[in-house]
Amino acid sequence: RENASGPLLDSIEKFGAEAVEPLVGALANYEGTVRKNAAILLGRIGDTRAAEALGMALYDMHDEVGRAAAESLAGFGAAALEVLAEALKHPEAGIRMHALFALSRIKDARVLPLLAEALKDHDRLVQKQAIQSFADLGDPRALAALKPIADDRSDRELSMLAREAMKALQPK
């Protein structure tokens, strides 16, 4: 089934804005693959009317659906900030990590404090994703948030990751 999905997705995508409503409905389908493909298509179509529904898909019990929703939301830019900021408060670390991934692709100054707050997360994997998200964002203003972690040698791995991210953010 997965092999046939490429041409099928391409065909559905051609409907553009007309496909948004049925695809939003497909996000509630019992089949995880259908929900994942709906999330992917909504991102490819790029209609921000789907932002709220994709925000709900971040919380899907299937990780692939949440990841696809995050990738699609990243393409919506600032229109997805509120939904992603809310996801950072979720108790599930995987959901917070998906939100951080999406935020790292949104070039907006309001992303920086969200990533900085995630550096204080109680889950180590979320902290690592926040550091990586700063590096991926590529904004040198992140240096100030990363410096305390880079200087704190009590956690060598996080310190090293923060130093590497800071190196990547240095103006060339």
Which keywords apply here?
mainly alpha, Leucine-rich Repeat Variant, 2 domains, elongated
Largest sheet: none
- How does the helix and strand content classify structurally? mainly alpha
How far is the N terminus from the C terminus? Answer: 47 Å
* CATH-level-4 superfamily name of the largest domain: Leucine-rich Repeat Variant
CATH topology of the largest domain: Leucine-rich Repeat Variant
What is the rounded Rg?
17 Å
Large-scale geometry: elongated
Order of helices and strands: HHHHHHHHHHH
- The pLDDT mean sits at 93
Describe the protein's architecture and organization.
- With 172 residues, the protein is mostly helical.
- It has 2 domains: 75 residues, Alpha Horseshoe (Leucine-rich Repeat Variant); 69 residues, Leucine-rich Repeat Variant (Alpha Horseshoe).
- It is 67% helix and 0% strand.
- The protein contains 11 helices and no strands.
- Helix 8 runs antiparallel to helix 9 and helix 9 packs parallel to helix 11.
- The chain is elongated and about 50 Å long.
- The mean pLDDT is 93.
What is shown here, in short?
67% of the residues lie in helices and 0% in strands. It is mostly helical.
Question: Topology, pairings included?
Answer:
Blueprint: H1 2-13, H2 20-26, H3 32-45, H4 51-57, H5 63-75, H6 81-87, H7 93-103, H8 111-118, H9 124-137, H10 143-151, H11 156-169
